Amino acid sequence: MTNRKFPRGFVVDGVVLDAWEKIEPYFDRLRDRPIDTVDDLERWLIDYSELIACVDEIGTDRRVKMTCQTDDPKRKAAFLAFIEHIDPKCKPRSHELNVKYTKSAASGALPPDRYGVLDRSIRATVELFRDENVPLQTEEAKLEQRYQEISGAMTVELDGKEQTLQQLALYAERTDRNIRQKAWEVEAKRRLQDVEALEDVFDQLVHLRHGMARNADCADYRDYAFKDKQRFDYTPQDCIAFQDAVEKAVVPAFRQIQQARMAALNIDPLRPWDQAVDVKGREPLRPFHSAGELCAKVSRVFRQVDPELAAQFNDMRERGYLDLESRKGKAPGGYQSTYEESRHPFIFMNAVGVQRDVRTLIHEGGHAFHCYAARHDPLLQYRSSPIEFAEVASFGMEMLTLDYLDEFYQGDDLARARRTQLEGIVTLFPWVATIDAFQHFLYTHPDHSREQRKAHWLELRERFGGIVDYSGYEDALSYAWHRQLHLFEVPFYYIEYGIAKLGALQVWRNATVDRKKATQAYREALALGGSRPLPELFEAAGAKFDFSYDTVAPLVEMLMAELDKLPV
Ligand SMILES: [Zn+2]
Description:
4% strand, 22 helices, three-stranded mixed β-sheet, binds zinc ion, globular
């Protein structure tokens, strides 16, 4: 099943497309081939897909290898060569092919059931493309790089050693309140040193992005971003409805959770450094001791959900498609990546033995199952879905496995792990609404001043924030958004997490009624890849694509009811 081969039909067998000279002739051939009939056009689309997949496979492989060992200069050089010398040359050539497609009379005669989603995507890409935006995008990428540099260089002295801000995260779980406060203050102080630099970068980004939007005949950058992200199935007004729903249905629940935390910790008020510690003063959970143990246990968890999925996961392990354990030289974080030509997933993470690692592997496992489920489609664009649904695959798997975490935890620990996970979902929604609402304001008011930006942020914190008392740390609160990388690097990308969570919670709700049927629907929806519009993908998974109060409120009620059943 997972070892299925996908033979080439266009690119010559055995040729590795690792240099522009080898790639270019294939672009030329696609450019010169007639696509006047539906048959010719269908074949052309499949060959075009194959070419992009073969090139993408090289880029993915180099990125994966680099992240697995960042201290190897050869791997870094190979990856940079791809993004500097191959990728930028492919982009204008792809645009040329997209234009060719839109001009072909046959494109209007393709069966809409099969090609409708692809067709609207290519047309939107062509419509938004402007030559004069290419240098602006390069400038934007440089500013984003500047943000990374500034953030990446932030370190502090604590406990007699230099530490990164990522390392400081561990202090938030320390049971000694003074230690937590000290670490929090050290980090806040360090971040404030770069406020001016980051405000400068952000001013420039807003200005640049607004210019790109105007070049593309869009009213503002929000309008541009919706088109660029190909949000065909929802509007800014739907996002605003989501923000309102979160304010009404989630914020009270979120504050209730924080009230309970404050009472359990026997403190008043709740301070910023009190948000992650265990309320009973227990040490952090240690669900496993080695990557091998993590892998074996997660495999058993997947088997409880569906034996076929477990078989896919075991196969990944045997083929070396997993790199799980943290070690020196590995890039931080975790991700799932797809090798587009061979159509197999790869999971990367940095397991150190904490609860988050279990969730990460289950989450990335959901993405990997999505890749396997949709790999049969010859069209590259249909082998993955938009993020709004891709994250239903991963968050949905987190929810479907919630009942089987006893592979990792027993008794009190099990309740504690479930509580952390469910509370985390309630907490996420107000943050998503905050970040989304903030961006709506920023880009529909491109001439805002720094003071207005700050005032609006604080207003949103009032509206969506919890009960944490920031007295004495007002500056830290005012610029808390500086740490949210998405605002700088991937503007408007955030609401997707909220939308996908709503889908995943509905999958979970269905599973409480009929687990087998819910899992089946989940798998069938994954198999559609990106071939259908979002509302249909959600529907196939047994979920409604809707982010209004009517959808949000009952799901949050269900979460709170589930939390009520768990001992504190
Ligand atoms: Zn994900």
